[in-house]
Design brief:
By secondary structure, this protein is of the alpha/beta class. The protein has one domain: Rossmann fold. Helices cover 47% and strands 16% of the residues. The protein contains 8 helices and 7 strands. Strands 3-2-1-4-5-6-7 form a 7-stranded parallel sheet, with helices on both faces. β4, α4 and β5 form a beta-alpha-beta unit.
């Protein structure tokens, strides 16, 4: 399924990975809905930059942990851009907390942001995709969601991404054959999330990869475009990790 002329929703698209995805899809002719909860300025700027370059994009603010707001978001998109044919569940955050200092509510919050946002949006998008007879759902997971790669301090995030990996594979079975469901597992991507991370820690991250460098958001975005363009791949988790998982073997 080529993306030109298709309506794509990218959640968490006000900056970094989500913004790079939105811009790449727009350059390839998609109608792009950009969604964020809190980064209103970034979301508006991303949509404006796309339209200034001749693309088609609209910004929508929504709290995707709230099912009513998810329904409202999809209604707005349908009214302005058409039914969502490609859903990219990219919203997420790690919210670092040592395990013994964490609370059950913090765990719930992390799962709400990283897992239930994808669940809510997928539940809303899938019926229309089935009616259309086609569709693509792509989830942003993480290398931290695989066996033995969860990281201390972000245990809730690692667990939520592991759940999202399982959800991706099982939903692919549920929605086959008309809808494909895949995921991208980023490794160490150069984003503002690392701005406050000590240099020695960042160096250790890069040393744990085979390529010994940061992956750029624009490089990562290509993985989403590839998966959205395919009809033969479903239940796939595409690792864009610079060989990080190889070093964990």
């Amino acid at each position: 399924m080529r993306v030109a002329g298709k309506t794509v929703l990218v959640t968490g698209a006000g900056a970094n990975i989500g913004r790079a995805i939105a811009e790449l899809f727009a350059r390839n002719g998609a109608r792009v809905a950009i969604s964020t909860r809190s980064n209103i300025e970034g979301g508006e700027a991303a949509a404006r930059e796309i339209t200034d370059k001749g693309g088609e994009a609209r910004f929508f603010s929504a709290n995707l942990t709230d099912e009513a707001q998810v329904d409202g978001l999809f209604k707005q998109i349908e009214d302005s851009l058409g039914r969502v044919e490609i859903l990219i569940n990219n919203a997420g955050a790690s919210l670092p907390t040592p395990f013994l200092d964490s609370t059950v509510q913090q765990w719930r919050d992390v799962f709400e942001i990283n897992f239930f946002t994808a669940l809510h949006c997928s539940r809303r998008a899938a019926p229309h995709m089935l009616e259309l007879g086609r569709g693509s759902i792509i989830n942003t997971v993480s290398v931290r969601g695989f066996d033995h790669t969860g990281r201390e301090g972000i245990m809730a995030y690692s667990a939520a991404k592991a759940a999202l990996i399982n959800f991706t594979k099982t939903l692919a079975k549920e929605l086959a054959p008309r809808i494909t469901v895949n995921a991208v597992a980023p490794g160490f991507i150069l984003t503002s999330a690392y701005d406050k991370v000590p240099e020695e820690v960042k160096k250790s991250f890069l040393e744990s990869t085979m390529i010994k460098r940061w992956i750029q958001p624009e490089e990562l975005a290509e993985a989403y475009l590839y998966l959205a363009s395919q009809t033969a791949l479903t239940g796939t988790v595409l690792n864009v990790d610079g060989g990080f998982l190889l070093k964990q073997a």
